[in-house]
Description:
By secondary structure, this protein is of the alpha+beta class. It is 30% helix and 24% strand. It is built from 22 helices and 32 strands. Residues 226-304 form the Aldehyde oxidase/xanthine dehydrogenase a/b hammerhead domain. One of its GO terms (molecular function) is oxidoreductase activity.
Amino acid sequence: xxxxxxxxxxxxxxxxxxxxxxxxxxxxxxxxxxxxxxxxxxxxxxxxxxxxxxxxxxxxxxxxxxxxxxxxxxxxxxxxxxxxxxxxxxxxxxxxxxxxxxxxxxxxxxxxxxxxxxxxxxxxxxxxxxxxxxxxxxxxxxxxxxxxxxxxxxxxxxxxxxxxxxxxxxxxxxxxxxxxxxxxxxxxxxxxxxxxxxxxxxxxxxxxxxxxxxxxxxxxxxxxxxxxxxxxxxxxxxxxxxxxxxxxxxxxxxxxxxxxxxxxxxxxxxxxxxxxxxxxxxxxxxxxxxxxxxxxxxxxxxxxxxxxxxxxxxxxxxxxxxxxxxxxxxxxxxxxxxxxxxxxxxxxxxxxxxxxxxxxxxxxxxxxxxxxxxxxxxxxxxxxxxxxxxxxxxxxxxxxxxxxxxxxxxxxxxxxxxxxxxxxxxxxxxxxxxxxxxxxxxxxxxxxxxxxxxxxxxxxxxxxxxxxxxxxxxxxxxxxxxxxxxxxxxxxxxxxxxxxxxxxxxxxxxxxxxxxxxxxxxxxxxxxxxxxxxxxxxxxxxxxxxxxxxxxxxxxxxxxxxxxxxxxxxxxxxxxxxxxxxxxxxxxxxxxxxxxxxxxxxxxxxxxxxxxxxxxxxxxxxxxxxxxxxxxxxxxxxxxxxxxxxxxxxxxxxxxxxxxxxxxxxxxxxxxxxxxxxxxxxxxxxxxxxxxxxxxxxxxxxxxxxxxxxxxxxxxxxxxxxxxxxxx
Length: 728
């Protein structure tokens, strides 16, 4: 761990920064994307600016030409620390070699992007929405920064602004031959009376992009390679103490501690803090806290999950799917009932998926320091942020929103788990008890596996009808499980021309903690949909790609991904004996079709994925190399979850505890090759982080069907399940 003094990690105050930086600094993109020019030599004016805008915003330019761009999104390995500043720098015409990137303050009114509700702004790195939601925001802010610089140069040279151009951090006046760098222009910065909003044009034509779409190394990688990158788990503050919680394996059970006096008598233990669902311990060292945790004597109550057996619930779910009463309507197109009444043939199958754990690399942790008077707090955390950018700490402490300062750190993996704030609030409560000492809370891997928040378990009943010509006329999809959109997302078939569609969700709750897991409902649902497509194709003796081409006739962008992946995978080429290919299409923001090549060890039941090909339409691609890396990571994570990962409960107790009984894909098990082809378009960027993962299950199941003639319908495809299917 890094020893970092409080002075080092505390943010530099706005006034302190301006006094120390010298000259003038330009801050662009405050609330409403309005710029402010702040001169360090004008103390009175500086105070006035801070009274008007209490947080600086998107960019800082100093006299030596250095440009600092603020990144508003979490960086958890997906590349936002580079992608968003690249978009800004593109419109600003900034020299990328002089650009530095820092996390922005966690203030959604200033740094948020358009939310899911009209008029809202969010700082929420989830749902593959970061580049998609910030693309226009960052382009406009960058263009406004460029306009301020152009205005300042025009005023300084006394020439019309229309005669000026920019290039690589330089203002150019061709008529007079004058040039001035952005850094040299700092001394002459002036604000225009009005500022274009660029809603009706004025942004670059994509054909003129120099940074967007080029190969730019990610800004944070050097720090991650040399070990200087700072994660919350690295922090050590003066007088810091350590907190741990014992939560138990039965979600929602209430604890009664039987040996509190013995625990408090242990070396280093400072306090025992009861929670409704856990017992917290604060100690002077992490070792002391963990030692005390091991000897806690706790009596646990029953909970809703008591008696629940996850592997036995599918029969109940099947009965629920058969019940005449409909569930909650998710999507309805045409008249499915009529389609089934007039069908020449119908198909029906149930698909199942077990709970899955997030398995992020960095264990959950946070550092919180509450002031001695309890009226302010500092938080250091790797978070995917959320609707409340202060992560619930103001409500917990009963203090104003502005009294909490969140220092966002790098995340060692998120996948949706770090969009929950439970671990931050736990740390906040311990810190409240220990004020003003800072408290670092750590979850052990066992804590996180046993008391995780999982991708839900579901059963999905699919029914498909075909007319006399073999055309698919109806598609019914019933999802049974807990979690609303966690299980019902990804069920739409907007890119398949099926005239009658019905999707419903039937709720079943067992008191198990649930959360968004990479691609959310798309993983199980696209598996069921794509596997069902191949079952229909097999019965009709139609090539699976040919069937999808027919269904995608009205969706040219989706069709283009299918045709491209068929080309690069040489779909129709013969394969060595014992191998087969499978295909699956996914829409999750971006459009993608994947093909995998597999073999099966018929003695052990082990499936091996040898190659994976992907064709992707993600609109404008800001970082091509990083998009390919995202697709590769998504495929590998998908293979791991599809072939290995499952959380099971017996009598409500989570049976897994660590990676010895929750296996992940090993290096030697990854495909020999993963090839991604990006289809170039000028459409608005779409997310890519969750497109690859949900195509894996369908592609593997479909390759298995082609290879063996047998159907895999229960995730994960563990060797014992594969053997059972092979021997059926």
